[in-house]
Amino acid sequence: MRTASLPRTVARAAVAVSAAVALAVGAAGSASAATSTRTVTEGAATFSLSVTAPSSAAAAGQNVTVTGSGFNTTKGIYVGLCAVNGAQGANKPTPCLGGSDQSGTTGASHWINNTFGGTLANTSKYGPGGTFGITIHVKADLGGGQICGETVQCAVVTRADHFDSSNRKYDVRVPVTFN
Asked: Whole-model pTM?
């Protein structure tokens, strides 16, 4: 199984991945789950992102549980499966599965924002301490010829929402591979 390595930078320090998330596309599978966690420290802030997924997934995709803590509740974030390139925080994770799912039909992305959360499909507000727990739908084909593990490396990510889209401070990613 391949996972992207995460170089250390002065501004960000990534701490160990506790387990790899493996999603086997098209294979019959068990009900067991794998969990992977990524923690990023930015100054005095520590953001944690965890992904729990079944050990196998159908070719059409799979729901995964994503939890986070320590996020700034005054800053909105998107959570989704995206192509990643370079060191964490260096480049905006894109393209992302489902794009801006404002209709709520794909479930591929989720917007967490304390002002607008819960008012639109696939949105919610932060819990205490900048926490959240959501479910998103992932699959290997991001569209436009972008296939996770074949043409791009992918991760479940958080990134600043459209109110601060150039801010890379809230980028946290957990690498995902599809077998």
From this structure: 0.75
